[in-house]
Amino acid sequence: MPTAMPDPEQRGANSAHPGHRAPVYTAFRLRVGNTGHTMMAMIADLPLLVFTDIDGTLIDHDTYRWDAAAPALRKLRDIGAGVVLASSKTAAEIVELRDALDLTRWPAIVENGGGVLAAGAQTTDDTARYAELRAILAKTPPALRTHYRGFGDMDVSQIAAVTGLSHEAAALAAHRDYSEPGLWSGTDTQRDHFLDFLASHSISAREGGRFLTLSFGGTKADRMIEITSQYQAKHTVALGDAPNDIEMLEAADFGIVVANPHSATLPPLSGEDSGKIIRTTARGPDGWNIAMLDLIARLELKEGRTLHG
Ligand SMILES: [Mg+2]
Question: Which residue(s) pair with 89 in the sheet?
C-alpha cells in the first residue's frame, strides 16, 4: 500500500505566495512500495468520510474480531473514502488497532471526543488537559471528593479489576489525555454537589455503563464536524451502537445504528423517520459490512474517482 504524507514543499509553495488561493484539493506525496519512488497525487474532495465507533460496532462485542467488516473496509479504500475511528478509548488503546485496521493515515477521535489522535501520530502529545483535570479534582472539597475514585486514583491492577480488561489493556486505558472515568460511591445528592463544584471549573460529567466520566466537554460529534471540514468530505456517515454515539449519528449525513444485543436499544433518533438514520439487523461488524456496502451502492460511489496522478 502506498503511504500518504502531507507534502511540506507544497505547503511551503503556498505560504511563499500569500496571494495564491488555496486549492480545494490537498497535495500528497505518495511513496510507492519500498522503491523510494514518489509521485505527486492530488486527492480531490473525499467522496465519503466514515466515522465509526469501535466496541460493539466495528468490532464484535464478544470475539473482538472485525473480519466480517473487511469487504466494506476494502471497498471504502478502493473508492478513496476515509475511515475515522471514534471511541471512548484512549490514544494509547487506539493506536495499535488503527494500525492493524490499516487506518493510520486517518485521524482518530479519542476519549469520547475529548481529543483527536492525528493521522500517522503515535500519541496526542497532549498531556496538559488531563493534568489540569486531576489538579481540579485535587482541590475539590474532601467531603465530595472522597466518593469519587477515578482511574488516576487506581493502579493498573485496580483498573483491570473494575473494567475487566487484561493488565496490559488496562495499562493503555490508564494512559489518559483528556478525560477521567471513575466510580461514584456517594449518594445522588452528594454527586450533584460534586458535579456542581466541577461545573464551576468547566468540567462536565457523562454517565455510561458503570463509570462517571469527567472531561472539559466535547463529543464525538464535535470532533467529527472539525475533521469533516478539514478533509472536505462530500458525504459523511457515522456508525455506533450506544448513547455516546447519538450526537455523531444525528450530526452525520447518514447514521447507521449497529445492532448490539448486549446493550439496551437506542431510543428513536432524529432523522430516523426520514431514513437518514437506519438500524442494522445483523450485529457488530456483520451489520457494519452490510449497511456500508449498501450505502456505497446507494450513493453510487465508484473506484478510481479520486486519485489523479
Ligand atoms: Mg460501542
Answer: none
State in Å: Cα 138 to ligand 1 middle: 31
Q: From ligand 1's centre to the CA of 19, what distance in Å?
A: 46
The alpha carbon of 262 and the centre of ligand 1 are apart by a number of angstroms equal to 10
Chain segment 255-295, per-residue pLDDT in tens? 999 999 988 899 999 999 999 999 999 999 999 999 999 99
87 Cα–ligand 1 center, Å: 7
Q: How far is the CA of 57 from the centre of ligand 1 (A)?
A: 6
Global pTM reads 0.83
The rounded Å distance from CA 35 to ligand 1 centre is: 40
HEC string of the chain equals: CCEEEECHHHHHHHHHCCCCCCCCCEEEEEECCCCCCEEEEEECCCCEEEEECCECCCECCCCCCCHHHHHHHHHHHHCCCEEEEECCCCHHHHHHHHHHCCCCCCCEEEHHHCEEECCCCCCCCCCHHHHHHHHHHHCCCHHHHCCEEEHHHCCHHHHHHHHCCCHHHHHHHCCCCCEEEEEECCCHHHHHHHHHHHHCCCCEEEEECCEEEEECCCCHHHHHHHHHHHHCCCEEEEEECCHHHHHHHHHCCEEEEEECCCCCCCCCCCCCCCCCEEEEEEEHHHHHHHHHHHHHHHCCCCCCCCEEC
Please report the domains of the chain, with CATH numbers, ordered by start residue: 3-43 (no CATH), 48-114+219-308 (3.40.50.1000), 128-215 (3.30.980.20)
CB 217 within 8 A of CB 201: no
Q: For residue 307, report the distance from its CA to the centre of ligand 1, in Å.
A: 33
One-letter identity of residue 184: W
What's the rounded Cα separation, in Å, for the pair 246 and 251? 9
Q: Report CA(74)–ligand 1 centroid distance (Å).
A: 22
Q: What is the mean pLDDT of the chain?
A: 86
